[in-house]
Design goal:
- This protein is an alpha/beta fold and about 300 residues long.
- It has one domain: Aldolase class I (TIM Barrel, Alpha-Beta Barrel).
- It is about 45% helix and about 10% strand.
- The protein contains 11 helices and 8 strands.
- The protein has helices at about 5-25, 65-75, 90-105, 115-120, 125-140, 155-165, 190-195, 200-210, 235-240, 255-265, 280-285, and strands at about 50-55, 80, 110, 145, 170-175, 215-220, 250, 270-275.
- An 8-stranded parallel beta sheet has the order 3-2-1-8-7-6-5-4.
- The termini are far apart.
- InterPro entries: Aldolase_TIM, ComA_synth, ComA_synth_sf.
């Protein structure tokens, strides 16, 4: 072994040890380019500018992959969401390990919309629902998404479910939209045949859910920006004008969609995206890159780090 090789290895060991120690704590080191100006964003835990990413569903997401992803980009991720009840198929110890990785990086974990199936298969049994909520809490979940795309349930029943979710120590996150039958990758023709609701229906229920103690309202994208021939920007405007910005999160699992929301609501819009898109969204929020319509045009003012001393 040459002296150069021994020296290289000895220099690498402290760096590797430091990175390993930081990774265990979920701590992100400072960028070497922090001296370059970019938008100041709220620090974690944030109350605005939240980014929730999709976990296992379209692609498998393992604990190792998630740990690596969040070690690089965890400063820009606030939550991890399962989809399609994928967590119910995982071995218990593997599910717990995945959730623990998210928590290590200061990210909450959401069930996604699976309560619909629990309600449908149990005929709304309070005992079954309670067991489901207890199990979610024991596994380490933080947020229970309560979707309404496939079920017709009175608003009062949704309110009861929100209250029961809180009693079980979980944060309730109802998902509402204008499209009946949303979810499950339905086609445009299928959704058009199902019809849409008036935006006022969505807004009235969202307000009722917020009054009941909902932590956040997820706005379903189908019928608005997903699986439509043209976007319903009028619905987006009605929602952002009627509901508190810190209480709404838009599904935006398409770069054109989250770019639209950032352009119109600013860098601190709450958005749900696919995990593969976190780099693009982070660059857009920080204002360091973008398309021709956004390059150099996404700005924040008065956030921590840019406030007057």
């Amino acid at each position: 072994m040459t002296m150069l090789t021994r020296t290289s290895r000895s220099l690498a060991r402290p760096l590797t040890a430091a990175l390993s120690s930081q990774a265990k704590r979920g701590v992100a080191s400072k960028s070497a380019f922090a001296f370059l100006p970019s938008n100041a964003l709220p620090a974690k835990p944030r109350g605005k500018g939240l980014t929730e990413i999709r976990g296992p569903y379209y692609y498998p997401v393992t604990a190792t992959y998630l740990d690596e992803l969040l070690s690089d980009w965890g400063a820009y991720v606030d939550g991890i969401k399962f989809a399609g009840g994928a967590f119910s198929l995982m071995p218990e110890e593997r599910l717990k390990a995945l959730i623990e990785v998210a928590h290590k990086h200061d990210c909450y974990v959401s069930t996604g919309g699976f309560i619909e199936r629990v309600l449908a298969t149990s005929a709304g049994s309070p005992q079954v629902v309670s067991k489901y909520l207890t199990t979610c809490k024991n596994m380490g979940f933080d947020v229970l998404e309560i979707s309404s795309g496939f079920l017709s349930i009175p608003t009062d029943s949704w309110v009861n479910l929100i209250e029961d979710t809180k009693k079980h120590g979980l944060k309730a996150k109802p998902e509402v939209g204008i499209q009946w039958g949303a979810g499950g990758d339905a086609s445009i023709a299928e959704l058009e045949a199902s019809g849409t609701r008036d935006p006022r229906w969505l807004i009235d229920r969202a307000n009722a859910f917020i009054d009941a103690g909902a932590h956040m309202i997820m706005i379903e994208s189908e019928g608005i920006t997903e699986n439509v021939k043209s976007w319903r920007t009028d619905v987006i405007s009605a929602i952002t004008s009627s509901l508190p910005a810190d209480k709404i999160m838009f599904e935006a699992a398409d770069p054109d969609v989250f770019t639209y929301h950032i352009q119109n609501s600013g860098a601190n819009a709450n958005l749900f995206i696919d995990h593969s898109q976190i780099v693009q969204l982070a660059c857009l929020r920080k204002g360091i890159w973008g398309t021709g319509s956004t390059f150099g045009k996404i700005i924040t003012y008065g956030e921590d780090g840019h406030k007057h001393k």
